[in-house]
Amino acid sequence: METLLLYALFGLFAALAIGCAIAVVVQRNPLYSAISLIGVFIALAAHYIMLAAPFIAAVQIIVYAGAIMVLVVFVIMLLNVEEAEHRPARLRFLVPTAILLAAVLFAEAAFVIYSVGDSPYSSLDTSAPPVGLTSSIGISLFTEYLLPFEITSILLLMAIVGAITLARQASISELRRAAAVTITGDNAEAETSGFQSAKSNEITPVRTGAIN
Questions:
Q1: Which of 34, 21, 24, 28 lies closest to 82 in space, CA to CA?
Q2: Residue 193 to residue 190: CA distance in whole angstroms
Q3: Residue 157 belongs to what domain range?
Q4: Count of domains in the chain?
Q5: How do residues 126-183 score in pLDDT, each as one tens digit?
Q6: CA angle, 37 as apex, 36 and 39 as ends, to 5°?
Q7: Last residue in a domain, options 83, 115, 149
Q8: What is the pLDDT of residues 56-86, one digit of tens each?
Q9: pTM assigned to the model
Q10: What is the CATH number of the domain that holds 44?
């Protein structure tokens, strides 16, 4: 019963991943494509959970479906990207090539499934080590892979400091430009008001003499 449930969940999430992947390509609105890609990431995270790798599934949700896709959606909304125009494909060989590649892919998948079914090594030990568990990953990071972990931390820190520096320089230059524009506008307004007052002083005696 449990095996049947796992097969059903695998088929469900596999169909969800394939459907969302097709929607990413088919959708003409890039925002809908990004949302469909989030569905693909969630389906892959579910597969990681079924493969007893909860930490990788959590990273898949937090990093890819969370941070990266939210950034992509914000960029699409800020750029105000409209729907792509429907243009006729100039390369006519794309459709036959895609069909041929899909047939080769399905043939390869069928061959692999058939070969695994006829494998003589069916009595092997199937107990896998805890690869995807949080404890094993943490121990590996802080023992065997401590140097790459620290180098990655330093690179991320450098990227954060560089982004803050660039943003600060841009804000300072914008403030200086705005101050220069304000000063120029005030000077122009003062010159205009002085010219108008001088002109009114010249016109007033003429009108007074005309009345007399």
A1: 28
A2: 5
A3: 133-212
A4: 2
A5: 555 555 567 777 788 788 888 888 888 898 888 888 888 877 776 666 777 776 767 6
A6: 65
A7: 83
A8: 888 889 888 888 888 888 888 877 766 555 5
A9: 0.53
A10: 1.20.120.1200
